[in-house]
């Protein structure tokens, strides 16, 4: 044959698959130099494809094999199956027939192959496999976002046939579409994270119709959220200590998303890092639950060590180390030097070099730096140090005490007290160290300098004087000028100052003014009034004249006092001392005259109770309500001291229970422990108050507040109650207090339905069109919006 000639012919193969066009290159003299493509395009010639590894390359053993295309449907270790694209056939293939890197072959890949037959079984098989790379038609790149990234632990390590995939999404006309991708679809072999901005092409698989993303390029990485702790706050900005690196980052208050008033140093926050003017700043700062951010891990095991270097009291200018201290500790079998700072000492004690201490080891999660923390001095450390120790009690002083150790109570004493007892005479009274404040108001004590008294005595023939204070008195008596006392001498160790202590009154001075008894009738802001023992008048006294604790003084207390005259010959009580009250004896009566504090128009100071004599006390009480059978008896005066409740306001005509006591000084019999017997009906109850049918003065109704009802009961109209009456000094009106329900009132009775209505309902039938009907407009629903069955 002459020189080779080239030409192309097109012809149709009468085969069972769909019609395909074959291009033949006539320049080759080989009878198998043909390559078939289902797309009508010429395929490149590969001489290596002539080798069939022992398989016949012809379907019937007489002609060349036809190349087809298909998709890898199943792939195992040494063999697999291909689904033909041009016909409904599933062909077996051995991995040795694949021309390429078997690790790159995956399920779903497009392949080109020839059809042959197995020698033993005669079944058709695929040989001479070649992977077809998908063509990406040039088109516009689509912008989207990674929805699900490819797991790192599967990337590049998956078994044959297992392809790790991820997914991206994009938006078109308000709709969001999702596409899958594989690691081979990502350009530059980078790992994409969820939230990354990407661009890609879309490709449709010709065999399966599945749409996927190809040629994915990273456009912008997702901004990661960081965590930290607010370490400083300024006027308009602050700083955050980051949890990922040992570094602080700036943030402006405008970037904080939350209540700025609640933000403070030590709060856990999360934020996003942005670059502004070449510097990193925190943006979108948000609070996290306390304890979310953890910088360090503290060892459970405690270690012992020795202080090698202490923290300098005055840091130098060049000192930049935040952990300047050093401790030598034995960790395991090796000695290790650990740094520590000011915040690592557990007891805030001043450490010295050579101190024997115990500690925990803290490891920073960010840079793995170890340091000593929870440092505490061991009790035996003072046995090894050569420091000078002193004993003292805690007090406010300028000297700075360090390394304080608590001693048993009573070990340290500032005073020495003489065992010898001395006798002397009071030359000057001592005033109590309590400011003139009302006992009825705030119980807060106001600092007030006490005035000391003076005692004259003799020691070895030498006349001396010694000061004393009311706190050093023993017994209830208050010494006065001229009284003979017995005492000991106390001396302060540091100053040598002496004072009398353990003072006891031996003899009272006969020349002193007569001591009188009375009862506390009124207590104001800084003064009060004492009712005399005869209960006929009140004596003024100032709180500065009170000897003893003013806070324990109450209305009705029995006191001892001395009369004195001041400016304008006004009589007042001085040197007032609280004493024990006497006892009294019991009866029933009626108030015929109230106290002058209740009725200021009367001239008499005392009130008056008329005794009612009856056979039985309970019968007397009932007779007061229902009959007029009673016997009048003797009248007994009473004062504020005689009231069982000093705040109660007895009205004229009220029934009372009382006891009879005798005044020791005058022998007069008076009423005491006077207890009113009030019972009435509740007329009405409003929201927070109500009225009782009880006549007080010109009013026939008595007001009460619901908070005055005992046991928290809710009173109803008609309830019978007992109560006390108090007078408001500012408004001059009375009200009820300590209201207690005695019995409940009658319950309202439900009136039965009239017979005419009952008969009418019986006569109505369901078929009657004119009869009233109940129509359900809306079905009932429960609290959780569930349907409820209506029973009509």
TrEMBL record:
**Where in or outside the cell?**
Cytoplasm, P-body; Cytoplasm, Stress granule
| Alphabetized CDD domains for the sequence | CSP_CDS (cd04458)
Q: Which residues form the signal peptide?
A: none
- Which PROSITE patterns does this UniProt record tie to the protein? CSD_1 (PS00352), CSD_2 (PS51857)
Please give the chief subcellular localization of this protein: cytoplasm
On subunit structure and binding partners, the annotation says: Component of a multi subunit autoregulatory ribonucleoprotein complex (ARC), at least composed of IGF2BP1, PABPC1 and CSDE1. Interacts with STRAP. Part of a complex associated with the FOS mCRD domain and consisting of PABPC1, PAIP1, HNRPD and SYNCRIP. The interaction with PABPC1 is direct and RNA-independent. Interacts with EIF4ENIF1/4E-T.
Protein name per the record: Cold shock domain-containing protein E1
Q: Specify the species.
A: Amphiprion ocellaris (Clown anemonefish)
Organism lineage reads as: Eukaryota, Metazoa, Chordata, Craniata, Vertebrata
**What gene name does this entry carry?**
CSDE1
